[in-house]
């Protein structure tokens, strides 16, 4: 962390997600003073305080670093052939997860570490300053514990997903596997995990199994998140709400009752819903599925986040700008809604108030775009628009 002060000056358009113009709290012709890794001051470029160092943004847009609240980075191998088959008409079922489990179990710690580092580096270069990382491709006590140990080397936001699928060796006794997850696996994983997650879906874990696993995780001190309603309708979203989940993720197939349950978590201070709907458009892109209806959720008042779901099966992208562009083009989100969801929304999905915003006291995690406005993230899809990234005020 930097101990000296740093002024990011000559910002044409500063997205604060705080007080300012429009839903993104924009300040024009602005500057940001960073001290001790935190935002110390935000104000007009014409009246800047003194600082030890200065970065000239050259009139470009500056926004909070992206907060990717859903990623599966601890794995080995890839599933490019499965992707190729899908693009030729095969459906996505999640059946390939076991292929990745086999490769992950066979990998060394250093191989897994190298993959995490490579994908985390990719994401950072695309503006992601916080990235949640899940286990879920080990599915033995030892392999889940080592997956989370390796994840924790790269992120403070780690999630135990021992209940990703039932591994082949438990195929004829799934309840024994649920017992393993709730007992010894959770005990081995919990020291490295902040969250517990379950893939609640036909072919993975049903709502009763998911409730048992999430409740065990909660009892061990972990926060709840859930993969829900991805491949078809189900009770996962409502279970997440029942358990006070920070986020219900995917939300591709929602009933009116699911939306009503989310709306029911609205906070009395008007700051949105306590349970966030995290939408993962990279998964719909890569599985050639219909996109979730973001407009329906937003119009109902549900807080929406965007994340990559980076994993070798359903969404092998680490790019938050790509997800922003997809959300705008395919999910009827405005560019402002998508940028908020990819920054402040992700922070809310992780129950963090120190990231996703550029207001005094927040962590100085920011990106300088190679563009004059946040609009360009959706307007110029696929173009590398991230000129500079800072974490804790330190240029990366
Ligand atoms: O979030 N749906 C469950 N898990 C991942 C996919 C994992 C895989 O296909 O390897 C997801 O999409
Ligand atoms: Fe996922």
Automatic annotation (TrEMBL):
Keywords: Cytoplasm, Histidine metabolism, Hydrolase, Iron, Metal-binding, Zinc. It is an enzyme of class 3 (hydrolase). One of its GO terms (biological process) is L-histidine catabolic process to glutamate and formate. Residues 62-392 form the Amidohydrolase-related domain. It holds the Pfam family Amidohydro_1. Its main location: cytoplasm. Pathway: Amino-acid degradation; L-histidine degradation into L-glutamate; N-formimidoyl-L-glutamate from L-histidine: step 3/3. The keyword Translocase does not apply. It is found in: Cytoplasm. GO terms for cellular component: cytoplasm. InterPro entries: Amidohydro-rel, HutI, Metal-dep_hydrolase_composite, Metal_Hydrolase. It comes from the Bacteria. Binds 1 zinc or iron ion per subunit. GO terms for molecular function: imidazolonepropionase activity; iron ion binding; zinc ion binding. It catalyses: 4-imidazolone-5-propanoate + H2O = N-formimidoyl-L-glutamate. Its cofactor is Zn(2+); Fe(3+). Gene3D superfamilies: Metal-dependent hydrolases (3.20.20.140), Urease, subunit C, domain 1 (2.30.40.10). N-formimidoyl-L-glutamate binds at residues 137, 311, 313. 4-imidazolone-5-propanoate binds at residues 79, 137, 164, 230, 314. Its EC number is 3.5.2.7. Catalyzes the hydrolytic cleavage of the carbon-nitrogen bond in imidazolone-5-propanoate to yield N-formimidoyl-L-glutamate. It is the third step in the universal histidine degradation pathway. NCBIfam families: hutI. Belongs to the metallo-dependent hydrolases superfamily. HutI family. This is Imidazolonepropionase. The gene is hutI.
């Amino acid at each position: 962390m930097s101990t000296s002060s740093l002024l990011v000056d000559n910002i044409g358009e500063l997205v604060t997600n705080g007080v300012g113009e429009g839903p993104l709290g924009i300040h024009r012709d602005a500057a940001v003073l960073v001290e001790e890794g935190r935002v110390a001051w935000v104000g007009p470029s014409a009246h800047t305080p003194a600082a030890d160092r200065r970065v000239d943004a050259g009139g470009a847009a500056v926004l909070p670093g992206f907060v990717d609240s859903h990623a599966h980075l601890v794995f080995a191998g890839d599933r490019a052939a499965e992707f190729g088959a899908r693009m030729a008409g095969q459906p996505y079922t999640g059946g390939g997860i076991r292929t990745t489990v086999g490769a992950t179990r066979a990998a060394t710690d250093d191989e897994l570490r190298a993959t995490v580092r490579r994908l985390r580096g990719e994401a950072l270069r695309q503006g992601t300053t916080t990235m949640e990382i899940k286990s879920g491709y080990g599915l033995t006590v030892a392999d889940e514990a080592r997956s989370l140990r390796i994840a924790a080397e790269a992120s403070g936001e780690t999630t135990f997903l021992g209940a990703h699928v039932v591994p082949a060796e438990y195929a004829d006794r799934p309840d024994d596997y649920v017992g393993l997850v709730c007992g010894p696996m959770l005990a081995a994983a919990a020291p490295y995990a902040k969250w517990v997650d379950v893939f609640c879906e036909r072919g993975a874990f049903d709502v009763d199994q998911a409730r048992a696993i999430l409740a065990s995780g909660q009892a061990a001190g972990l926060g709840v998140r859930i993969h829900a309603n991805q491949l078809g309708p189900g009770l996962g979203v409502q279970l997440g709400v029942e358990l006070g989940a920070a986020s219900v993720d995917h939300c591709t197939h929602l009933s009116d009752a699911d939306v009503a349950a989310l709306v029911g978590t609205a906070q009395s201070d008007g700051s949105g819903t306590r349970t966030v709907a995290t939408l993962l458009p990279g998964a719909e892109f890569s599985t050639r599925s219909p996109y979730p209806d973001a407009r329906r959720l937003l119009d109902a008042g549900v807080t929406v986040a965007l994340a990559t779901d980076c994993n070798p099966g359903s969404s092998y992208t680490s790019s938050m700008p790509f997800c922003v562009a997809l959300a705008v083009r395919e999910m009827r989100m405005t560019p402002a809604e998508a940028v908020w969801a990819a920054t402040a929304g992700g922070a809310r999905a992780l129950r963090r108030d120190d990231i996703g915003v550029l207001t005094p006291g927040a962590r100085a995690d920011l990106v300088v775009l190679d563009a004059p406005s946040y609009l360009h993230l959706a307007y110029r899809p696929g173009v590398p628009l991230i000129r500079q990234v800072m974490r804790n005020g330190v240029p990366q």
